[in-house]
Design brief:
0% strand; mainly alpha; single chain
Length: 232
């Protein structure tokens, strides 16, 4: 509840006060969209990182892995569902900014904005599947996921432009779905062309799914060979 409901509003409030001195009217909307993506990434990261741990605690992980459908098929809805919680983050931060800070909500391309949202959710959800598939054998996967929250926020440019960071960060940002998701939303809001960024989100989703499929197949093979899935 804290990560999905309250954190987006807290981060948005902090960001609004930090950027409130900006001279342009669009600055606060720029920040609101970034704060919304921060909440979407947090929901995806903690939901996907904690997915394996929650299934272990409920003693259902072994059943899911042993079931006839591949674990990839059963885990994907979990990760996409957690990413979809980020839709609340975007809506809540925009509404919060409008009611408390007078953020203008005039979108230049509202249809493309609505198209960019599900593309971003899908890309983040499949990225969460990659984390879930690689965290399976790690006992404290949910704790490890905490380390990935702030670096990805910075590298994605959701609040701070990537151009202000060291040069090696920009190539890394190209492989992160939040980078293209926030660019697509901002281009749709401010009159740019978000279609290339939407295409990048979909392309990354395919790449993530391929990587997750390989990782899932490997851990299923190792789990059956060594019987280490429960970590007991």
């Amino acid at each position: 509840m804290l990560v999905s409901v309250l954190e987006p509003l807290i981060f948005a409030t902090i960001a609004f006060y930090l950027w409130g001195a900006g001279g342009r009217e669009q600055t606060l909307l720029y920040v609101a969209l970034g704060a919304g993506l921060m909440g979407m990434w947090s929901a995806t990261l903690f939901g996907s990182g904690g997915l394996i741990q929650w299934q272990r605690w409920q003693r259902t992980l072994e059943l899911l892995v042993a079931a006839p459908p591949r674990f990839l098929v059963t885990a994907l809805p979990f990760t996409v569902a957690t990413a979809s919680l980020g839709l609340y983050s975007v809506a809540a931060t925009l509404l919060w900014g409008r009611l408390l800070f007078g953020v203008p909500l005039a979108f230049e391309h509202p249809f493309l904005f609505l198209l960019a949202l599900p593309a971003t959710v899908l890309a983040l959800g499949v990225l969460g599947l990659v984390f879930a598939s690689t965290f399976v054998f790690y006992r404290h996967a949910n704790a490890f996921s905490n380390l990935l929250e702030y670096p990805v926020w910075l590298a994605s440019g959701v609040l701070v432009p990537v151009s202000l960071l060291p040069g090696f960060v920009e190539p890394l940002s190209w492989a992160l779905a939040p980078t293209w998701g926030v660019r697509a939303l901002r281009d749709a809001a401010f009159g740019g062309n978000p279609l290339p960024e939407i295409g990048a989100c979909l392309a990354l989703a395919v790449a993530y799914l391929t990587l997750a499929a390989v990782a899932m197949a490997n851990f299923e093979r190792l789990a059956r060979r060594h019987a280490t899935l429960s970590l007991t």
